[in-house]
Amino acid sequence: MGFENMFTPEKFEKAWQVFLEEMPFAVWETFYVTILSTFIALLLGLPLGVLLVTGEKNGILPLPKWLLNTINVVINLLRSVPFLILMIMVIPLSRAIVGTSVGTVATIVPLVCAAFPFVARLVESSLREVNPNIIEAAQSMGASPLQIIVKVMIPESVPSLISNTTIAVTTVLGYSAMSGAIGGGGLGQIAINYGYYRYQYPTMVVAVILLIIMVQIFQSVGTHLSVRLDKRLK
Amino acid sequence: MIEIKNLYKTFESSEGRVEALKDVSLTIGDGDIYGIIGMSGAGKSTLVRCINMLERPTGGSVLIDGKDMGALPAKQLREERRKITMIFQGFNLLMQRNCMKNICFPMELAGVKSSDAKKRASELLELVGLPDKAKAYPAQLSGGQQQRVAIARALATNPRVLLCDEATSALDPNTTHSVLSLIRDINKKLGITVIVITHQMSVVQEICNRVAILDGGMVVEEGLVGTVFASPASAAAKRLVFPNGADELISNPACERRMRVVFNGARTAGTPLIATMAVKENILANILSAGTRCVDDKVYGSMLLGIPGGEEQFEKAKTYLESVGDVHVEGV
Ligand SMILES: Nc1ncnc2c1ncn2[C@@H]1O[C@H](COP(=O)(O)OP(=O)(O)OP(=O)(O)O)[C@@H](O)[C@H]1O
Ligand SMILES: [Mg+2]
User: ipTM higher than 0.85?
Assistant: First the structure.
């Protein structure tokens, strides 16, 4: 098929029609799936990331070695499975949790499974940036391990946590588009349905452009927040 | 009273064993400003961190008002730490909290009501001379100002002991002086025992009443600052008191008698002491070396004089110089 057949006036017209009729809802679906999945991934990943840092031998709340090793191995395992495979692997889990394995809501399960180990690693790296002398100062004032986590480590790394969360959001956005391949909704589904199955390339291009715009917006908001909340600058 | 008894600390690491503290015993009285001085790596930080058990000693004990710090369970130790607070070389303020909230931090940990904490924090900001910086963030302050906030924070829980680990090492001489004055005021006003860790003799001279010299993890000399300064006995003490080398070695062709004059806060900054001695007593002293500093109107440091004219002149000079307060003279 030649280039001129890929982008005919009829196809552009179709793209415009889809843009008006289906894209707004698709954008919304992609948006909330991304945000919700990242949020749940944070709920799971934040405590795990904290444990990875505080549970070390010289950490403020050392864990038994076997437990720390197990957490590390599980995170690495989940991180090394390609997302496409992971999506298929967790189908039984999706069925168990949301009752179905297809549709927009069901894709939240594989997205969370892929994102929370990633988030745990990001949180770990953020928390490691906190000046250990500040933690020691808090200990010298009689702070308990929990107080150190809640009042020192997390608040002190907020700017870094936000910029890392932004990375997580944009990664999850990419995955959510991929989930369109196995029955998830949103922009990814439109791109695959129209572009791959029906050769409606202009429609696919429009969907991709919208995805790019979303990534840009998430990234700018994240960067802006991270800079604005950082009291070390100025 | 702080009693440190036969304290040992050995670090085991992949590079081998480091004996950071070896049989350290010290008694620090209430209301003292106690200096612990030593070269880099002497074990000063390790010692001070053992006092509040941030570092667990390998042997020996630390008693604070009779309470064995090492034997306290975790929760009680945390309670006790509120009474033995600490300031650091790097200030270690919370960078994402403003000054007011930094000072409230230890009170927050202790469960003090927020409104009471704020009130106390304002008073403390006033005490350290930064009443207008409540809303400023640490990054907006100079080093000296940050250390003042750190001092205010350390005072928030009404401690009995203030530990200062190289608290002025990152500051310029003027700022050092003003921070040390603040620490001395606090000691006087609030009666808090202060332990000052430093590698600078000038800091000890300026505010401490007693000093211990640490070398290779051992206390090699301990006593009143004046005594240790006037006649340092150990090699480590001599190195610290006379950083320019042992001045006994300066050649002495005329075979004149020599004396070391130690100024320990003498109020002679405004008087030409040696010239006056020449005019009044007719003694022509030969200044061989001098390392003195003025702090306010007080002089610290030492001077090596050659006195020509034999024993009689020497004794005359000695009597004259010692008649000035806070000056100590010894023959070398
Ligand atoms: N956590 C540690 N692990 C291994 N060795 C350590 C540790 N902490 C300190 N040491 C060693 O103990 C010795 C004393 O260290 P310490 O920090 O107490 O010295 P210091 O007198 O405070 O020196 P400085 O003036 O440089 O701060 C040094 O040889 C140091 O290398
Ligand atoms: Mg040190």
Answer: yes
